[in-house]
Batch of 2 targets.
Target 1
Amino acid sequence: MIGVGVIGYGYWGPNLVRNFMEIPGARVVCVSDLNKDRLAVARTRYPALTTTTDSQELIRNPQVDAVIVATPVSSHFALGMQALEEGKHVLIEKPLASSAEQAAKLIDEAARRKRILLVDHTFTYTGAVRKMRELVTAGSLGEIYYYDSVRVNLGLFQHDVNVIWDLAVHDLSIMDFVLRSRPIAVSATGISHLPGKPENTAYLTCFFDSPFIGHVHASWLAPVKVRRTLLGGSAKMVMYDDIEPSEKIRVYDKGINVTNDPESIYKLLIQYRTGDMWAPQLDSTEALRSEAIHFVKAIEEGRALTDECESGLRVVEILEAATRSLAGRGHPVELGARR
Amino acid sequence: MIGVGVIGYGYWGPNLVRNFMEIPGARVVCVSDLNKDRLAVARTRYPALTTTTDSQELIRNPQVDAVIVATPVSSHFALGMQALEEGKHVLIEKPLASSAEQAAKLIDEAARRKRILLVDHTFTYTGAVRKMRELVTAGSLGEIYYYDSVRVNLGLFQHDVNVIWDLAVHDLSIMDFVLRSRPIAVSATGISHLPGKPENTAYLTCFFDSPFIGHVHASWLAPVKVRRTLLGGSAKMVMYDDIEPSEKIRVYDKGINVTNDPESIYKLLIQYRTGDMWAPQLDSTEALRSEAIHFVKAIEEGRALTDECESGLRVVEILEAATRSLAGRGHPVELGARR
Amino acid sequence: MIGVGVIGYGYWGPNLVRNFMEIPGARVVCVSDLNKDRLAVARTRYPALTTTTDSQELIRNPQVDAVIVATPVSSHFALGMQALEEGKHVLIEKPLASSAEQAAKLIDEAARRKRILLVDHTFTYTGAVRKMRELVTAGSLGEIYYYDSVRVNLGLFQHDVNVIWDLAVHDLSIMDFVLRSRPIAVSATGISHLPGKPENTAYLTCFFDSPFIGHVHASWLAPVKVRRTLLGGSAKMVMYDDIEPSEKIRVYDKGINVTNDPESIYKLLIQYRTGDMWAPQLDSTEALRSEAIHFVKAIEEGRALTDECESGLRVVEILEAATRSLAGRGHPVELGARR
Amino acid sequence: MIGVGVIGYGYWGPNLVRNFMEIPGARVVCVSDLNKDRLAVARTRYPALTTTTDSQELIRNPQVDAVIVATPVSSHFALGMQALEEGKHVLIEKPLASSAEQAAKLIDEAARRKRILLVDHTFTYTGAVRKMRELVTAGSLGEIYYYDSVRVNLGLFQHDVNVIWDLAVHDLSIMDFVLRSRPIAVSATGISHLPGKPENTAYLTCFFDSPFIGHVHASWLAPVKVRRTLLGGSAKMVMYDDIEPSEKIRVYDKGINVTNDPESIYKLLIQYRTGDMWAPQLDSTEALRSEAIHFVKAIEEGRALTDECESGLRVVEILEAATRSLAGRGHPVELGARR
């Protein structure tokens, strides 16, 4: 039985605690938060929990085998590193760290100490995203043309990172998981409507070394909640609407057929093709539950989650580049070579 | 009775002919198109029409007082200029011309010859867009924060211009009409999936000298048709969904209230405010009919449509800048001083 | 070339004229309407038309080979019979007549005079309804459990018939076409909110001699337009939403599996099954065009449309029974033997 | 602190337990269920709970002041009566009992013993339904014309009652609450697709002694989940869509205006009126929480919930009449005089 400690019982922490309480092989033994009221809420729900306002106490607690970091981004590195140094396995809320340098250090430290490190890219454990990867891998969509996502709603404004780090990060993790390719450059634009605060509305374009483009619109300041992704391919196109209670994934047999115009070798004839739409049934297991099981199993088997860690690093590299581009009004920023 | 000649009877031409046939004070007398089949279709519907494959013949036809140019963008300038030189009034399909220089020449020529020139910014005549302008002008939305629009569908690929010139142009005309302010710079990204062809998928950000941002996603390669605009203000926010058969405009009493944290002068407290939603009834007159009446009335009264022409020019300036930015992967392009 | 005369140029008449003008083999030569303004509209659109306020003149017009009756229900029989007696082919707006007796007389007269008679059950010519029939015929839905339809909107109140005769008639024609079975009894309830006027809101249940039930909700007094039909089967279920611009037909791989409980022979175990959803591409030809071609072809070939006429009669039989049940607050009314 | 015992920990029981655990003034002390696995689930969530498979034990438990009956309908009366006889307060799942006679006995027994009795008409505690009542009471909708509701989904088939008792009961409780008037007769139709089992699909019409009609479509055998109610009035109309995450209530300024035709005293002129739509913000407190607080407060204050009990009885009277009508294929069944 793996003892789990959760640092941060704000918005996402309760979901982490609930899931790690309900899966086999693990049990949450300790929760820390700076806010005592939050700890009181946690104890009401789980009377057996140890709670503390001191994250160091949690990290040093000998009953804690694995530490989950569910705090603002700026503290991910320090807390994650302390936990690794204390010999704990670590699961860190997305994004993995505030910089690629920090992310790399965490990965290296985990490898050196043979501890399991995982970043919480929750969406990659959903039935919908797994279905998209399955369709791409099987070639069902043909050549992939674009990924376009809108992820907007009202709130929650973050104080330490802009909206790309908070919301677009989900799409970067999904793109990395589904397409398994890395952008070569990004361009980002955005705005803050509160003086001195990070951008609350932003647009991010990812360029690749293939005729594929990725784009994310992220905002904390929209009147409606939208979670809608288009994944276009030469053979089929997918609409993924995460707000829909059912039929989240719709596969459209639509596209264009391009032929040479018989009357002119210089001209292409474009024909529009529309066929059936298909909404495959999806695995409806809660993503966080699948992820928790995945993490616990890796600890039990002593198997490093290398792919997931490298994905976490790639995502942070893009976020860093995006923030630089944002400051330059969309000026394109190239991503360095893969480490 | 004003005699109207329509050049181009492809996708949009039939709508122009139908509307100018049904309004008082005008009558379509001649239609030209390079394609004889299209002319046959026109004659079946309107047996009294004169048809020709030669646009010059139409322009010189003495029964034609006003020429409507509904052809690909690249021919707008030449045909519009010929018609003006022949002493005709001119209505040109959006965008007004292929370059700001051409647009300015058309405007100057119309002024010199005292002929009415109008660019067909159709959406600015819809009940929905007029309601948005009314709300903004009345201050109902508070300070305007952003304009965000998605205008995507499958087809129709254009051969002479990219998708920004074809689809995003609608949003640029709407933004100009609703907000009455001019961007100072743009950043655009996009992609073509057909070698040698213009971009079919593109993203355009407009920067202003105020804390406002405009963004348009335009594509000919989406599996679903989307026409959805968000207009965010400090007091209220609007969602304009042009696909909805009714309730195209929804006004949300939603937003944030920002106050200084009493415990810390350095911190802002953000509160999320949600209230009623309201969908005002809209004028449902067909936009093109209102526009046709507007054009005919200006001819009858001899009143130059200066505002509309200047708007047509500003939109072309943005399109030119966007195309340059597109070539530079989002590199921001500043718009020159107002002429 | 078959000369067509259309009696009634109100709501539906213009669609009939437009379609019969555009198909090969026919041409509308004459339109009659009691309202001179409507005739003026018709002439503006089609300058070559003969128009008259006297339907008798149209019926006797030697250029008219086929008469289309698009008038209120109460006049269907008289006008249709006059046209048949004059030796014309006849297409009558739904429902065929005001009573089963009248409908049967029309059918007999057409047979006696060897003239083509057709009732305008428009929906049976749509791609959506034809797809439903195809699915049922192929057995894809399994045993058919129910047909449930909601057909409501604001207006247009009829003065001579209740809302079942005006709106539910569409569903009766669809059920007859898709399921090819005849109800044995009906129960109808409803209300009129205008003293002395026919029911504007009504509910109709059709009973069959199999474990299948049909139900229609029809209203002229709803704030939203709904055209939504559920067709449930033991293997699959269909939702047909005619308001949707695309994906009008959705086939759900959903249902129940019933097994005997191993622990008790008296108990059934019900398992809920949910699988993929599939929206087949549909033929998008305008229904009225297909119907017009069908009618013209039958005239050309001299082939009586017996099935369609019998369907028209069956529908009127149900409507008559429904009106009797309505007066008895749902008291069930049995349908007599098939003629 | 009121001690609460919950009989039945199946579908609805967990919601009852959670809410009574979280409100002030009460605490769930005991849960009973015939299924030991369900009890184990309850204990995992709430380690301090006493659990038992014997409902009698729970009823006699001296720590239990109030008994909640969340079992199949057929056991409501016996369990509720036993609890009252033991001197407990009682909250019974909808519907109150299997017959009006039983319901009346429960009410009388509670009055005699001065114990609080409440039936769980959950929807009457939602912000949406309360807003509808508020609009009706304030006269905002004008004269009320109809209530029409569709409440369908796939499952859960009940074994002891038909779908009217299981699903339409919600609408009967809403109608009673919103309109405060009692039907004079009902007509119901329906079908069972499983031999010997209660109807899984049914239609219920309620007649009143005013020009108002109520109708409910209830089904356990639909491919999609629909919870949509139309409430039509002479001044405004409401659509209540409980599936919508926000804007559940939409108020349409739509309707008809009826005037006498100036040209004919026998004719009414009907004009269709369409105006704004308005979606008021709703109280989003969980309904069951409000209800639990209401119940606990009544116990604390010793105030009998007479109105709620009478409503529970009226609803059962309608259900009984509906079942009789169902057996007679819609034959109308009159409701007796108010007791």
Target 2
Amino acid sequence: MAGNSFGTLFRVATWGESHGPAIGCVVDGVPPRLPLAEADIQTWLDRRRPGQSRFTTQRREPDRVEILSGVFEGLTTGTPISLLIHIEDQRSKDYGELKDRFRPGHADYTYWAKYGIRDYRGGGRSSARETAMRVAAGAIARKILGAGVSIRGALVQMGVHTIDRGRWDWAAVDDNPFFCPDRQAAQMWEGYLDEVRKAGSSIGAVIEVVASGVPAGLGAPVYSKLDADIAGALMGINAAKGVEIGAGFAAAALRGEDNADEMRMKDGKVAFLSNNAGGILGGISSGQDIVARFSVKPTSSILTHRRTVDIRGNEVEVSSKGRHDPCVGIRAVPVGEAMIACVLADHLLRHRAQCG
Amino acid sequence: MAGNSFGTLFRVATWGESHGPAIGCVVDGVPPRLPLAEADIQTWLDRRRPGQSRFTTQRREPDRVEILSGVFEGLTTGTPISLLIHIEDQRSKDYGELKDRFRPGHADYTYWAKYGIRDYRGGGRSSARETAMRVAAGAIARKILGAGVSIRGALVQMGVHTIDRGRWDWAAVDDNPFFCPDRQAAQMWEGYLDEVRKAGSSIGAVIEVVASGVPAGLGAPVYSKLDADIAGALMGINAAKGVEIGAGFAAAALRGEDNADEMRMKDGKVAFLSNNAGGILGGISSGQDIVARFSVKPTSSILTHRRTVDIRGNEVEVSSKGRHDPCVGIRAVPVGEAMIACVLADHLLRHRAQCG
Amino acid sequence: MAGNSFGTLFRVATWGESHGPAIGCVVDGVPPRLPLAEADIQTWLDRRRPGQSRFTTQRREPDRVEILSGVFEGLTTGTPISLLIHIEDQRSKDYGELKDRFRPGHADYTYWAKYGIRDYRGGGRSSARETAMRVAAGAIARKILGAGVSIRGALVQMGVHTIDRGRWDWAAVDDNPFFCPDRQAAQMWEGYLDEVRKAGSSIGAVIEVVASGVPAGLGAPVYSKLDADIAGALMGINAAKGVEIGAGFAAAALRGEDNADEMRMKDGKVAFLSNNAGGILGGISSGQDIVARFSVKPTSSILTHRRTVDIRGNEVEVSSKGRHDPCVGIRAVPVGEAMIACVLADHLLRHRAQCG
Amino acid sequence: MAGNSFGTLFRVATWGESHGPAIGCVVDGVPPRLPLAEADIQTWLDRRRPGQSRFTTQRREPDRVEILSGVFEGLTTGTPISLLIHIEDQRSKDYGELKDRFRPGHADYTYWAKYGIRDYRGGGRSSARETAMRVAAGAIARKILGAGVSIRGALVQMGVHTIDRGRWDWAAVDDNPFFCPDRQAAQMWEGYLDEVRKAGSSIGAVIEVVASGVPAGLGAPVYSKLDADIAGALMGINAAKGVEIGAGFAAAALRGEDNADEMRMKDGKVAFLSNNAGGILGGISSGQDIVARFSVKPTSSILTHRRTVDIRGNEVEVSSKGRHDPCVGIRAVPVGEAMIACVLADHLLRHRAQCG
């Protein structure tokens, strides 16, 4: 398979470059007769949209999504759903040195090494702009999963600062510009990120996504395990460098008796006494909350001069100018949610196929 | 796709249960005319084989691999290579309580929830025995990658103890029963793991795999990014709970100017001044060492009694008896290497297809 | 995989309904640095466009294709190419009885049976309009195959009338409204088809496609044989009912000594003395011309009243009104060429991947 | 994907060469808790086995199938089912001229052209022996389809002789060595094929497969149409040269009013008044019988000397010796049934996934 689509039955193919006329996606395999309107998708896109606070890039991306196919009289028809967003913010500009200098930490050099050509305008295909279509596809995935499944994300670490899990409040997430579930941390982060931003620098982050209400049984061992597919989906998000499920890396330091989640019966159902597994055992959902985290590196588009080379092999320097995102991890929250929604919807259909 | 195969062009399908008559795999898409003998594969299997020290399960798995197809007069023919290992250690035994009790931390419950049936003998399909075939496939992948690419793994953390990276010595890895690159740590780990083993307990670990000599350009953005595929491949290994590339989760705490790897020219080639990226930018290999780590939880097969339920919904207790693996992370080292070899071989072929 | 994409490495996903706002496709896996402009694609679309003679539907489909991604400064970048055609001819109209009556011979009933909903406007997704995107993708496939490969189609049978192969002249194909390689037959067909058209009836056809210059070695036995993939691709064209390669069904009546194409050397190369194989042996191209034929049924949109049922289970009658296509086989010629171009491009990349 | 597997959810990977130690397959995606024993598979293999009459090759292929995984206590577990047949009839022999001469009409030359190496013993991977695994997989597919679906094949043409459809009797099929449904024709064919056999020649055939009881709604337009997948599956059978559905090539000569199958209600269900569609409309099953035919060329292994070249480019002659199959079409009957069973099982699962 070529690299711009994912999923087996719920299948998403995206296309488009940062500064092209449009970006879009084709979502195939959607069950028929689901109510779907542009507004259902726009809601989620709006959460991701940059420029909503001083902490994300000021680039204007109205991101108005259009449904071009696959929906008839308000219902999905089972045929592919084509979504498109026209790109309006294409200021004609001089890309200057970015045209032939590789920004350190960016995909500039590797796209060049792979393809021998690259669309240098705004990062081209490697731009985070593409993630809008992941969010759009995620909105459709949520429709498939139904109201019983909720998928929520939060920023649990910004730079060196982590939240206090004792103060976790999902209601707080939408009350601050960081999707932070700890109000106190969020307040502190404002000053912290302002400092980073004013210094022309940037900072990484850790995002946690929790999926509740997922039925036991999803996942296709041993190579499409639910956690393996989630790991691939999250690591494929721009700037992601790590993924963990449940106890994650901390599990390495645990002893067997502390790690394995014991089981009891509660109201006639299996109930686990802890959730180190993050809701997945043997690659199959257990019915517990699915808990995944991923780390995002600091954006490399910073105002400091950095040493690099150009396409002719000269040693040069480069720096970014203008709009920059001090913490790209913020906008990664809705993207992480969307990717998990897509993986779950795909596995729901796969499970239904094999196990009825 | 069903869940028991992986890869796009270099494609591996595995089959077999822990206590069935045999396990095996079919490796398809292998380029023709590569020299391949059973001994080339056996070498790698022997590294993974349990029972080689007191620190791994004493179960005897001779694991003699047979090539049943796809090789003619010592060369691959381009047709599928079928590998098979007969299982000799199938003592007829009474599985007793394991027949209907779900071991906490195991796949017992989720296989039951998904399929409504499970082969309870030795974990059935969810057993780590299956990973022998990953190692076997990895041996073929290495042939495709050629001698210029080396893929080496090491245990960098066992339980609460991490290695001292200043003492990293690849030569040490094969001199101790832990694949530990730090001789001093390895010595200390002996006593530590003995204590864990004698207590009937177990401990997690972190494995690091480094691939050197990988050409720049491998990876298929934006959904088959090299790091995304590696993350999926490593998270799909039994007991894995976390994956990171390069700086990984530590990247969250870095600032942009510290994270992005600067570039200079060296001997007419691009040279990076650091490797926080772990050799992958924008999902494409940069030519630097690819560095991936994954965490493995402590095995849940421990001698302590644990609370659980049975298939009829009764609250019961369960414990493992006899042979147990105090640190399954040890044997995960060759498995991690193999999975990365398979991912790289697949992307090498994919890159050759698209970019010639 | 969901059903709206095809190909392994050269991968095409199409979307859109007959009377939606647009139709389009995403072509992924295209090698980088190929020159590509909208005009390169438009040329082929224009051959397929209806309304060019009185023998095809009078529906106006200007079919102006736009490239929305994947091309930069006139060259492909290796990222997905999104193509879109706005549908201009969407007269708001009353679909009357077609809204709830199943036209015999159409997909009306089966879409309803499968999805429980259908876009009844102009056939929705099942409309031949979708084939425009196949032709567009085929234009890109031809770029990958290069100038050395030519893929040409011709109508060799219309209704009961077959051509005289002794008069085959490729130059004639573009000189008549039928893509007929036999000028004399073409002349006769004018009167014949006029009669069919005026009677409000329709007629089937057989199309032959010949690919010359295809190198030996393409095809991936034993389940992606080149002929198997061609058969699937051609049978998937709207209204197709049969496919054959080389001698095809006539091979059943041949004896072994008459069927097998003997070989000699010519100019240092293998030369075959006949081509009953149609250029494919064991599922792999032999270097000879690849010769494939497919039959197309008469369109079911005819002016005669026909017995059918409606969505409520009533026995009713139905007939088509207005514009109709007396021989849909004509427009199937460029579509057949395009599908074969896509299959060959995919196998060229697959072969390069495995065999270098 | 590599070429040795097929299916999306019901997925079959086969391996093995004609004269290797074994052949086998891995069937993945099978629903759990289906009763399955080796005898269920052996039944179908026995129908295909050669050497049962003087009209098929005298090569002894006992073809005893073993189930190596995926079945526990007589039920499928949802994990991959590995099937294996040991090859017993491997007489060590001198392959003589076949070692480096390309038999006309065989895959010898194209395998050489593609891979630069070939296992010349008995045709290697291109041997019809591989089709035993298709039949084995088909046996599992039938289990998934259940008792309500019957899939039966018959030889409807042998060489120049076709059956009289007025005498069609399914009961006759198993009463003659040809799977011929017309007893009178079968009797005549004995003498005809004896003559062909004694002349050291061979003859082609046409096979018809009918699937009854298939529910309406199977098929995934527009690129995994049921007829497209059937066409690919049948054309991929060794020696196949043509495929048709329903009226097939004859549809080209029909007029619209004669071709489209009218509909009425019968016992509260839709009933078609004819079946030119062969049970498939718009790529989706209509609930009528699915009717597919494929032609098979005469085997090229004949006793007559034929002109060819060798691997060094010399012009030479070649002929087959010993055992030969005067009409390979006979054994293609159970193979055709099996392929259609596999396609239907796959689409049943795909349909259940999307449409519930």
